Amino acid sequence: MPELRQNLATREWVIISSERAKRPEEFVQPSKERVEDRPVYDPGCPFCPGNEEHELEQLRLPTQGDWQVRVVRNKYPALREDGDLVRHVDGLNHSISGIGYHEVIVETPIHNTCPALESEQTIEQTLRAFQLRGLALREDSRVEQLVFFKNHGRTAGASLMHPHTQLLALPVVPYDIRTRVESARRYFLDWGECLNERIRKDEEQQGVRMIYQTDYFSAFIPFAAFSPFHLWIAPHRRVASFLDALPEELRELSIILRQVIRKLYFGLNDPDYNYVIRSAPESERDAEYLQWYVSIVPRVSRMAGFELGSGMFINSALPEESAAFLRSVNVPDDEA
Amino acid sequence: MPELRQNLATREWVIISSERAKRPEEFVQPSKERVEDRPVYDPGCPFCPGNEEHELEQLRLPTQGDWQVRVVRNKYPALREDGDLVRHVDGLNHSISGIGYHEVIVETPIHNTCPALESEQTIEQTLRAFQLRGLALREDSRVEQLVFFKNHGRTAGASLMHPHTQLLALPVVPYDIRTRVESARRYFLDWGECLNERIRKDEEQQGVRMIYQTDYFSAFIPFAAFSPFHLWIAPHRRVASFLDALPEELRELSIILRQVIRKLYFGLNDPDYNYVIRSAPESERDAEYLQWYVSIVPRVSRMAGFELGSGMFINSALPEESAAFLRSVNVPDDEA
Predict the structure, then answer these.
(1) Which residues have C-beta within 8 Å of that of residue B145, sequence separation ≥ 6?
(2) pTM (2 decimals)?
């Protein structure tokens, strides 16, 4: 029997479609060029060593002599750093000047790798770069919301294959995020606890959708996952902003994020995916009703007309089955 | 200078990204197999003539002897027709049994065609089938929301190439639609007029984003279009539910819908696209603050991590330029 499950953060329903459900193995991706089969260095790649002059800004985290992670301004930024934040209202046409920041974190000098094949140290430094840049950008009072994300693979929106993540600093809080914040605030007012914390604790207790657990983090497929293998990595310590995660938490997040991404890589044959770090709006960065977390969305299904027309999603994988599958995936021993 | 524009229906912002903007010609799709080069009849296609026995239900609109349009239950329905609508609440796990309808409208017996190549009569009969089936399904008191949509091409979610559209009848109003309804209701309370009607009239007056106009409909790219060439076809007569569109309106909608789809087909080389008919929830089907319309979304850009993490979209095409481009596209003379 199909079931509609409600995402309490967005209040939206998801159709968990048992009649058209696929077994987890049916989501294994077809063979394609392996990341490792690409050249380790591509002279035409703007993110490879030797092309640092293309940078507009740089952050170095020198641990082994040369740079390991560097940050550059996006060459084609979605937003512009200079100018005044001006609001125009002309009848129904409401607009704001597109002020903000759009930066790229180049995760490693190595061209032919990806997070599933990177070391924990590389992932940890990427997370540190996110934090350092976020802390710098929040100093600009025009910044209302930081969005941290990764696009892995073409169908996930990546145009350059050299491993990189991105950071956008927005001059507004997106309405979607406002809705989530408001749900969390109301939940706190009604129940006296943080909604995300309650979701995580419930998932830990129920166990059927858990994938992996460490001292500081839990990885699970949420009850109302909107797409196959959509999963959360949620911290145990409640803090609203990712920028307030502690160094030891970042270290452990790099371990569990890598482990989960490797389970996807080896279990589903390197699916394209996005991950985003959901962090509080700047104006509510200390709110006790909010908790940051990482959301990972493998791109193994497509958004179609129904999703566009309703805002709802049809998930053709049962979250419990997907979680059992990911738990059972053995990743090769860690040679990194 | 990039600009954030607000969609007043959803209150969400869209980044209109002039720095990374592409010229309209850059969205022309690469060459691919032409629809017409496929066989006119495919014995393995469940929608081709001769396979009618696979139907669970049928609607015939006989105009030339054999069927022109037929309606079948989706073989792998997202929702199930039988059973009671039961709500389960177990802590944070909120669910409703997946009751509803999922039907397919086979637009024509011809396998190798698509709306851009179909006759106006075929499109009109598809729209009539939508209406007839919607009127039948709304008799079921469990139905709260009808969603009418088309997926054209693989990246738009189509798995079968034989031209077809789909209809889902939901037992809940999606939260996204509730948000839109609430925005429209508040606008009506504040301003005494229908938001969608005001949007259409403003677009007609400004003209720069208009594409096509007939006696009963206007086609335009909205000010805050969330993706390149995202466009609306809005009726001039205000009525909340598509099911209340008049026969002469359906006839004219088939003309303008076909014309706009042909402009996309010839101007952008047959892009994949979705169209959805946005119609009022059943409980508000007579609301004076609502107006149905058709939303068309060519799939010429990709949703990536930023969109997932923020709910906002980055549109790399200027709506005004896209509209001028589509206005200038000459479609071949109508031989259909």
Answers:
(1) A310, B169, B170, B172, B173, B174, B177, B281, B282
(2) 0.95
